[in-house]
Amino acid sequence: MWIVRINKRIDSLIIYLTEKDIFNYRLGIARTILALSTLLTLIANDDEVLFKTKTINLTDSFNNKDLFQNINFFSLFGFDHLYVAKFIAIIILLIVISGWRPRYVCLFHFWICVSFFNSVRLVEGGDQIASILTLLLVPVLLCDDRKWHWNKAKKKEDISFGNFEYLIANCFHIIIKLQICLLYFHAAIGKMPNQEWSNGTAVYYWFNDPIFGMSEWIRPILDPILANPIGVAMITWSSILLEVLLFMSILMSNRAKYFFLILGLTFHFFIIIIHGLISFFFAMSAGLLLYLWIDNEFGKIFFLEKFLIKKKQPIGCFENL
């Protein structure tokens, strides 16, 4: 009966989610890179350049009826003592990077990232991604009882119906995967109605933008390509194609995920070279590491393993993940 088969699948899925251990060094690397994104921005910029002026949100927040603005981390000491909040934020981010006690530090990491996103004068996509990922990582890391996020978690013996902490962590890890998956889907689909992206000329305008355009040192390399209509179109359309493939990689095999992880990291690294968006690179790199984790869980959860995995496995079998 198909109902029995579905019930077996659901039972196997629950057992799988209560046994799969994601608390390892790969999660630690993603956290470290994510914290590095915000840390570099704080260190490399002066307060007056980075944050809003005295007449805007920061000093008015204590008289503001908006609760969220009142608890902004960078408003705690006022604008005149902003350096105190900035110094504490840097210390906390260094602790995150070190990997010490992720269960206790994760809330402070989220607080800093979301406060930073709502306080700085100019924000980029990387700051928003960092605030979202740190929020989604909070339930995962509250279940992480390791002293250092570089170590492998100790397997717990008491599993009456699996490990409830693993269940929560794995469910939110899936939500993170879906978030990054939809991010690339939106990035690709959102470009298509635009005339410059559809006709293949968008990259020419972006590379020559007076604010976000390419640096002068790379012009001798890219100008000949941008002068060629075919070269411009190839770069423009290949960017959309890559984003579509990164969206689809959620259901791909392990080998394909390795390939698109490297391809995605390379893609965002070139964005640094051309546009100088360093914090965006680190935030997206952390997202890619969390997204393209080396497993086939989505293929199995949605019953597609026979199309995605060469080795045939019994129905409801999740042990080899």
TrEMBL record:
SMART domains: HTTM (SM00752). Residues 19-296 form the HTTM-like domain. InterPro entries: HTTM-like (IPR011020), Sporulation_SdpB (IPR023894), Sporulation_signal_mat (IPR052964). GO terms for cellular component: endomembrane system. Keywords: Membrane, Transmembrane, Transmembrane helix. It is a multi-pass membrane protein. It is found in: Endomembrane system. The keyword Transmembrane applies. Its main location: membrane. It comes from the Bacteria. This is Antimicrobial peptide system SdpB family protein. The lineage of its organism: Bacteria, Pseudomonadati, Bacteroidota, Sphingobacteriia, Sphingobacteriales.
